[in-house]
Amino acid sequence: MDAVVCTVRARAGCRLPCWNRDSPRCVEYEGVKDLAEAAASVGVPKFVLVSAAGVTTTCGGEFCLNIFHGRALHWKLLGEEALRRSYKHGGLRDLSYYIIRPGRLSNNLGGLLGCSFEQGDQGRGSITRIDVAAIVVACIDGHCIPNVTFEAFNNKNKLAPAEDLNKFYFLDPDEPVAEGAEITSRLLP
Ranges for the NAD(P)-binding domain (predicted)? Predict the structure, then answer.
């Protein structure tokens, strides 16, 4: 197996106690953590996680949505950290991860607008699902530096998204996760 692509999303809504297998905690954190650990343990060389823009936001619209949807963004961020720990830098094997934080997903036709890539979880915008899929494939095909977290949005440029993929090479890799570092919900941007 060359890569694992994880695009899980918990369902919103209230749950009865003990019936929470599809809760944000179980899906966005525990599920991602278990999948990343399993993939790393058998040496799957690449792991691509589609997360969400705004996971580090503590105010604004994302914060309100986070509160009303079972703290989904909080659990997504912890899932990202679990992936980083499983695929930590400098391991015995050549393992790489890619964490894509798309903006609001749209069902519009993809490939018509350009793409912009940011880091630091400050940007806002939307992106088509088709363009996110193209970004995932580009990561698997080696068109992006390894061990990186970035946000992706559509912009108004008429460049084809494939031309924008050259911007991948200007992204900064994540800082290595320190051994024994405490898990926080604000470890990286």
Answer: 2-141
